[in-house]
Preprotein translocase subunit YajC (Vreelandella nigrificans), 180 residues
Amino acid sequence: MEWLIIVLILMFVITPVMWLKPSPQQKRQMALRESARKQGVAIKMDKPPLHHFRGAMPAYRWYYPQDAPGPTFVLLREGSASAALELYHAGWRWRIAPLRELPDNATDPFKALLERLPQDALVIESTPHSLTLWWWESQNAERFTTYLDDFNQLRSALGGLSDRPVSKPLGAQNAGRHIF
């Protein structure tokens, strides 16, 4: 009887420790996020631009240079979009289309990237500040690195195509003029 009590006490002590140990999926996600951060990608859990979505989703962000903001658009995977939205390419629909047509040096690599992304990639969003991929992190770090060059090239091609003109500080506008 004493041995049974000792075994039960040990089980009560060991069980919470086992719950704290990360699962294989959590280990894979931690390695993926660490690898992406080392490559200059900012990762944040945030609410995606999806209707009727509750909770947070991983957002992988590539920031535009401050002096070259990007265009504004939201592209949704067809399964997460209404059929009323305009079809763009390979099962992706515009929720918010860019004001101006994207240049060829951005369009061709963008379409190729859309064809390669995993099925759990649901949204690609561009704001003046960043290009963001919203996805459920289904792949490992090695596989994700195959997308990094494409996203970096896309960010470079879209940088400077802001829907609003870049405002300069007041001092920079009057730098050439002397007021007496």
About this structure: Strands lie at 42-46, 57-63, 73-77, 86-89, 92-96, 121-126, 130-135. Residues 66 and 129 are 7 Å apart (CA to CA). The mean pLDDT is 86.
